[in-house]
Amino acid sequence: MGTGPLSFTWHQGGSRALLGTDSCLELCHIGDNDSGHYQCWVSDGDSVAESVPLNVTVLVPVANATITPRPLSHQVHTADPVTLRCSVQVGSAPVTFTWLHNGQELAQGPVLELGDVDVGHSGTYQCVATNQLGQDGHRVFRALSPELALEVTPQGHRGTVAAGVSGSLLFLVLLVAVIVARHWWHHLGG
Asked: What's the per-residue H, E or C state across the chain?
């Protein structure tokens, strides 16, 4: 190796893109996309030496938990299948999900299948997303979704309305038929 002044260059993932030119590399405002292998290349003008790649894993706390319901309506009828999906905008894996119904723990996992719902499924739903960062597991982060209000109405309401409409329609048809028949009967001299 030569005796000239040393120059430093920092690179990520074997890329030739330059991240810095000092003997130390400082990364500011990092995110999970900054995870990867970092290397320092040192040159004395005659030759280049490369450091052993250093693996950097950026751990990101969970944030912005949201619930996506299927169907998208917040009002459903009994026996309708309902699925709720919880997701986070950011957060390093593993992320765990806990479902709350009216503030009480209900289930675990990113998807809550309510199946054929009944009136007892009405109420508010929330999901709690959690991840642990660090080797010791003492740094636990939680993100609570906004509440989703679900209203389950009895299936019979639709049938009652339909029966009421069809009954009224039948009555009107019969009334018109009686009036027409009476008119023809009087008109023909009955």
From this structure: CCCCCCEEEEEECCCCCCCECCCCCCCCCCCHHHCEEEEEEEECCCCEEECCCEEECCCCCCEEEEEEEECCCCEEECCCEEEEEEEEEECCCCCEEEEEECCEEEEECCEEEEEECCHHHCEEEEEEEEEEECCCCCEEEEEECCCEEEEEECCHHHHHHHHHHHHHHHHHHHHHHHHHHHHHHHHCCC
**Distant-in-sequence, close-in-space partners of 5: CB < 8 Å, separation ≥ 6:** 44, 45
Are 66 and 22 in contact by the 8 Å Cβ rule? The answer is no
Q: One-letter amino acid identity for 6?
A: L
- Cβ neighbours of residue 3 under 8 Å, at least 6 residues apart? 44
Token pair, residue 143, equals: 């993100």
Per-residue pLDDT tens digits for 34-74: 889 999 999 988 888 989 999 998 889 999 999 999 988 77
**Which pTM value belongs to this model?**
0.64
Q: What is the mean pLDDT of residues 129-133?
A: 92
